[in-house]
Amino acid sequence: MRIDRLERSKMRLVRRVYMKIDYEDKDYYFLERAYASKYDGMIEVDKITKETFDKAVKEGKRVEIKAFEDAKRYIQNRVLNILENDRKCS
Hints:
This protein is of the alpha+beta class. The protein is 29% helix and 39% strand.
């Protein structure tokens, strides 16, 4: 049986990381979720609350605490997008 490379396979969660990023003396909290299938992958990043982050720490979940400069590029972009949106709303 030949398997077509375009065949869809379900995406499954392979990594979940709770992040605290310090930028301009303010903390931002994110949840990074990485999904993968047989042939594809994607990463989603969502803003979370401090309480959600603290709960993850208490439960022993995977956590990263970083300065903005040390964060992955797509996390840096997300922080900057949030700042831009906050400025537009105020």
